[in-house]
Fold:
Amino acid sequence: MRLANGGVSVPPPLSLYVHLPWCVKKCPYCDFNSHAAQGIPEAAYIDALVADLETALPDIWGRRIHTVFFGGGTPSLFSPEGIDRILTAVRTLTPLVPGAEITLEANPGTVEAARFRGYREAGVTRLSLGIQSFDPRHLRALGRIHDEREARRAAELAATHFDTFNLDLMYALPGQTLDEALGDIETALGFGPPHLSAYQLTLEPNTPFGHTPPANLPDDDLAADMQDRIESRLAAAGLQHYETSAFARPGEACRHNLNYWQFGDYLGIGAGAHGKLSFHDRIVRQMRVKHPQQYMDAVRAHAQVAETRSLGRDDLPFEFMMNALRLVDGVPAELYQARTGLALPAAANVLQEARARGLLAAEAHTLQATPRGRRFLNDLLPLFLPDRP
Structure:
């Protein structure tokens, strides 16, 4: 696929991702950069985050931050005072837009009412709760530290203290039946969540489940049935399916994640944080030093960016589509050039092939995967690789 040279004349919206890497215990399915807590050096780590942000300012100078996302790990292991200190630094050092969405991930085993009030008072506007299941048997199988009572209590607190919140569930769990998967959905809906995420359990390499898969996982047909029934039930409950695994009431989609899927920019600070930044002549991806102590040491030496990679013009079609085609409604076709600097007609042959195979919607004004394309993204996306198979 021959592509013209391009540059981004107008930078896309900018988000800030803050990685807080500690957990009480690492779950056997998790491949995130997270570390079991042996005592969290909260003050020292926040010092490093603030210094990291200060060092990164030349890369984002003059740009407004539209959303902030605290991810992990388990960010709710940090005190409300610590979160407040980070957000105070963000407001002091950057132009944070009025009404910015500020999300914090939390796990039910690490929350209490006083903390939720404190996070809200610090400026957190949206909570994302890692429930995974309300079934005690499945929680044990997943290695979660909370039980079903803590899961229900955390959901109640989220609904009490936050205007918008997300409940995060998984399905196709070891030994799970279709009725049990739907039972988790019904329980979650009882808390009136504005947003719900439903992920199929996947076996990632370099995790305990990846090395030794559970013996009683649902087969592909049952997992597909679960997905179909979950999507139908959530639609009936008024939650719109807007991204591969995300459902929301009108106006409640996660703005931070939407910026990812629309190929927006994000600065990532913290151990192992990833970022993507657009300049007039290049688009770069960055990664911070992964290990928390090594990251803090590296910040003091102004060497916390472990990797910077410029995306070549041949990389950009796949990079853009890998994000945009996760959105159920796709994106306007003109966003392709606006976010990559490349002319869409240069990809006409690939687009035609994808449409002919029923993987991409026929409308020229929209880049949107068909239902078949969403189900078989692993067949659709490689069409946009520079050295496609």
Remarks:
- The two ends are 13 Å apart (CA to CA).
